[in-house]
Amino acid sequence: MTVQSPPPSDPKFDFLDREIARLEAKFRETTQDLQKIRLHLRLAERAKAEVKAEIAEIQESWDNVHYKWWALTLFGLLTFFLFSYFFYTNLGWYADQRSLPPGSDWLLERLPIVNLLPVLSWGWLGLHLYAGALAILYYPRRMPFLLFVLGSFIAIRSVFVFLSPIGAPANMLDMSRLDYLFSRIMGTYTFTNEFVFSGHTGIPFLFALFFKTRLQKAVFLAGSLVMAVSVLLTHNHYTVDVLGAYFMGFAIFTLSDRVYHRFLQPLFLLRPKLPDFKI
To answer: Please, which of 125, 177, 231, 277 could form a disulfide with 237 given CB 3.0 to 4.6 Å?
Structure first.
């Protein structure tokens, strides 16, 4: 039995097969490109919608604000904040003139010394800038309240700093000498002998209490915890300063909230206008 060999292929059909295969590959590639373009368009539309929603949220935040009374209240509470800071600078300067003995701290004696001063300076600055941007864009009606809370915190903390009989912890990494940012403001805007209670820990915690969304609260609470760990590892605060910052911060926020919303907030809230009834 003889095996017949397949008939020779026609060059024309081979060419057509190759062209069909090439066109099919090109079609598949074009289909994939179209799918990618469609995906990018969807992402762009979603991003555009999110931007519009953000702008609408910002506009809504600034609606229903009686600008005249809001500006007057903001100016008054800004004055209160600046007065509190002036009070702090004077008591802080006095605290730095005293020669105070270092205290003993069970936890600090067992913690290593780690140079996290950039976290305490630039991280601290970043948290404040982020909080300021959020307050201006999304919380304009609550900005006076934020100034009132911060002013109250600074004033009360200044009294604690003034009355504290304990000096710097042993082996403290001195930010006035080792940090670029604080070396330029130490002694004028911030001071060395200010420990009870930790401002690095307490103020981000106040931000976490002030802002509303879960993400914002999580960011500032995490920032507060990072600052707490950093001031301990750099020996810039005693353990009691860090723990006290949370208790005092919560107490000051609660007190400020009650005083502000009872006596100050009604000054600038926009009350709905009653319709005119013709008799």
So the answer is: 231
110 or 71, higher pLDDT:
110
H/E element holding 62? helix 11-62
Q: DSSP labels for 229-255?
A: HHHHHTT-S-HHHHHHHHHHHHHHHHH
Q: Exposed (0-12), middle (13-18) or buried (19+): which is 5, by Cβ within 10 Å? A: exposed
- Closest Cα partner for 51 from 61, 39, 40, 43? 43
CB 113 within 8 A of CB 171: yes
- The CB-side HSE value for 120 (13 A sphere, CA atoms) comes to 29
Global confidence as pTM? 0.76
What is the pLDDT, as a whole number, of residue 20?
A: 79
Helices 143-163 & 199-210, crossing angle to 10 degrees?
A: 160
Most confident of 2-6, 37-41, 66-70: 37-41
Residue 223 host element (H or E): helix 214-233
pLDDT at 276: 44
The count of other CB atoms within 10 Å of the CB of residue 98 is 11
Q: How far is CA 279 from the centre of its chain?
A: 55
Find out whether 151 and 80 touch, Cβ atoms under 8 Å.
Answer: yes
Among 39-43, 147-151, 160-164, 172-176, whose mean pLDDT is lowest?
A: 39-43
| Cis preceding linkage at 27, omega within 30 | no
